[in-house]
Amino acid sequence: MKLILDAMGGDDAPNAIVEGAIAAQRDFDDCELVLVGRQEAVQAAFEKNKCKALPERVSILDAREVIEMTDDPANAFRRKKDSSMTVGLNLLKAGQGDAFISAGSTGALLSASTLLVRRAKGIRRAAVAPVIPTGCGGSVLIDGGTNAECTPEYLVQFAFMGSVYAQYILGREKPRVGLLNIGAEPGKGDTLRQETYALLTRLAEEGSLNFVGNVESREAVFGQADVIVADGFSGNILLKAMEGTAMYFTKLLKEAFQSSTKAKLGYLLSRGGMSDMKRIMDYREVGGSCILGIQKPIIKAHGASDGKAIYYAIRQARNAVACNVCGIIADHAAQLSGAGN
Amino acid sequence: MKLILDAMGGDDAPNAIVEGAIAAQRDFDDCELVLVGRQEAVQAAFEKNKCKALPERVSILDAREVIEMTDDPANAFRRKKDSSMTVGLNLLKAGQGDAFISAGSTGALLSASTLLVRRAKGIRRAAVAPVIPTGCGGSVLIDGGTNAECTPEYLVQFAFMGSVYAQYILGREKPRVGLLNIGAEPGKGDTLRQETYALLTRLAEEGSLNFVGNVESREAVFGQADVIVADGFSGNILLKAMEGTAMYFTKLLKEAFQSSTKAKLGYLLSRGGMSDMKRIMDYREVGGSCILGIQKPIIKAHGASDGKAIYYAIRQARNAVACNVCGIIADHAAQLSGAGN
Fold first, then answer.
1. Would the CB atoms of A277 and B217 count as touching at under 8 Å?
2. Does A182 touch chain B (CB under 8 A)?
3. Which of A39, A150, B106, B159 is the most buried (most CB within 10 A)?
4. In 10 A of CB A31, how many CB atoms?
5. CA distances for B224 relative to A302, B161, B212, B305, angstroms
6. Contact, A293 vs A125, CB < 8 A?
7. Residue A37 main-chain phi, psi, to 5 deg
């Protein structure tokens, strides 16, 4: 398969992207990697990483422009036709690649993906679907922040897409789909939640979905659902509250371990046991977030990605292609577009 | 001052309420405490806590019914006229007490407070306003879960009420009021956020409020605002995500410390430095959540409150009375009801 990388997206581009590509090239011999970006900058990053010649199965496609975080996300890809993102997505659209990975602006990537590569037929909205580190080994959160305003129909489609992702990429047999809400009982929450609850219940009765009911954010963190269905507003509040609390807790813990010589020694003795905790809290191993609902796999890597994070984002793209997640979603689309009407 | 306690509300009622009352009676000699509930059960709890006679300034008011979590919150207080909650709130309404504290059903307490004690004139909605453990020593989150559907006018009123609370109870001089949103820049979020942002900006320009703009949940956790303004849906998602993540992190940390003899020893050496962390994460010291917008102070204590948590909830009620929070909010109400129209 051929994976296309936006070599200019992210805080540490192109270096992080090149580092990730070198590691991925070593491990995944079924992948060809195309790095799109300023030829000389990408080339220099390879040289910096001790690759005088490009590794096998790796190529660079020159694109002169870069979409910046300050560009208007809705139009950036049109205004900058020779940007790494636009050129890369056009390549994907033209069938000259199987997936696209970018650590650039989420908004720009979403607009460009929707307007260039297009949504799967019948899908009303694409949504970013991060896998968040919950107690069940990770849950798909959909929508993680794309569509601030949603209808019950969107949420039902998110439920389906998230369920496909959890089944095929996370390997959950009958993914438990939960509706993010502010109470566990049916009838809780606002009108959007009440209407969505009714639709998801009907689909569960038909056997099309394993809907486990409302999930509060506290229980979501502990892993009560494999798929957490939310509008992009509350989904993003959940995502960043977890991230913030974990960061804040880590900061307090570090301060505690540095508070005295005794505590420092305590850290040295106990840190071995903490590797699991660190691994769970390490966003890099999650890879990126898949943008679901687009005809081909698009992976949004974290803007602060380093080489390791890009490596995992490439692995995630490879899995999405291998499992044909987008094809399966497209096959469901007829069914999806019927629900919620 | 006279504080009224719902002796029958909460998982460990009446014992936790009696324990908290005994401790508060010792520390706050300016307070009279009235415990409302089944006379014999409350009496027995005092005896169990080594008080054969009731302590000074403590009395019991008999009420035969108890509002259960399974009762319909909207009507429970009417159907159970002789419940501890209804009797207690009627006492408050009649001017025979200065504040009411309950660890019972939030929904029932909110309905009963609104319909018996009534909202301050001009206030459209009452809202529960927990103080959440953020990096700035705690922030007022308003609404924490009461009104799932809100208008810009409600949110502006929440901003005002939260600001009064942060100033007079938390002692913040010019409380920084932030709008919970999914991006920091103006124009982010849904229509509700965009409209509220414009109204809050106007009030800030008039000097009525120290509005610091949008706050994402990650930054909210780190204490970027003293007051976090949210609709009850996303506010509750934030609140419980922080709670869940802190609990989950604590669980992982415990497992890490128990993973080997070396790690156990490490814990013994470092635990001294962790007391601050534990204190920050201990919901009990926060007390309860004030329901703001009602004519008199109503404190909702956590359903799982133990004696210590009830003690702090009593202290919080005492502060609210001493600082005349409800009076100040009522004075602002004319101004408030003008905003957002």
1. no
2. yes
3. B159
4. 21
5. 23, 18, 9, 28
6. yes
7. 165, -170
With beta carbons under 8 A apart, name residues in chain A contacting B252: 276-277, 280
Name the residue among B38, B109, B63 with its Cα closest to residue B289: B109
Q: Which residues of B touch A134 (CB under 8 A)?
A: 248
Query: For the residues A193-215, what does the mean pLDDT come to?
Result: 96
Residue A177: phi, psi to the nearest 5?
-100, 120
Chain A interface test: which of B151, B270, B281 (most A C-beta within 10 Å): B270
Which amino acid, one-letter code, is at B136? Answer: C
Q: Tell which wins on pLDDT, A135 or B6.
A: B6
Average pLDDT over residues B172-193: 95
List B residues 233-292 in contact with A (Cβ-Cβ < 8 A): 233-234, 236-249, 252-253, 255-260, 262-274, 276-277, 280-281
Closest CA to B214 of B171, B183, B246: B183
Angle between helices B191-205 and B152-168 (to 10 degrees): 50
Task: Centre a 10 Å sphere on the Cβ of residue B43 and count the other Cβ atoms it contains.
Answer: 19
* High-pLDDT (> 90) share of chain B, %: 78
Q: Is the pLDDT of residue A338 over 60?
A: no
Per-residue tokens: A8? 């200019």
Return the amino acid letter for A102: S
Confidence category of residue A336, pLDDT binned at 50, 70, 90: low
Backbone angles phi, psi at B117, to 5 degrees: -85, -25
Locate the chain B residue with the closest alpha carbon to A260.
B273
Q: Does A95 touch chain B (CB under 8 A)?
A: no
What average pLDDT does this structure show over A53-82? 93
- Give A137's Cβ-side CA count (13 Å radius): 6
pLDDT score recorded for residue B340: 43
Distance set, CA B271 to CA A11, A251, A273, B259, B276 (Å): 37, 15, 15, 16, 10
Share the mean pLDDT of chain B: 93
Would the CB atoms of A182 and B217 count as touching at under 8 Å?
no
Question: Which of chain B's residues have a Cβ under 8 Å away from the Cβ of A244?
Answer: 217-222, 242
> How far is residue B243 CA from its own chain's centroid?
15
pLDDT tens across A79-102, in order?
999 999 999 999 999 999 999 999
CB contact under 8 A, B245 and A246: yes
Q: Looking at residue B338, what is its pLDDT?
A: 54
Interface test with A, best of B231, B247, B269, B271 (most A CBs within 10 A): B269
Q: How far apart are CA B270 and CA A79, in angstroms?
A: 56
Q: Using the beta-carbon criterion (under 8 Å), do B270 and A263 form an inter-chain contact? A: yes
User: Is the peptide bond between A14 and the residue preceding it cis, with omega within 30 degrees of 0?
Assistant: yes
Residues 195-234 of chain B whose Cβ lies under 8 A from any Cβ of chain A: 216-222, 232-234
- Within a 13 Å sphere around the CA of B127, how many CA atoms are in the beta-carbon half? 35
How confident is the model over A17-62, as pLDDT tens digits? 999 999 999 999 999 999 999 999 999 999 999 999 999 999 999 9
Smallest CA–CA distance from B191 into chain A, residue: A149
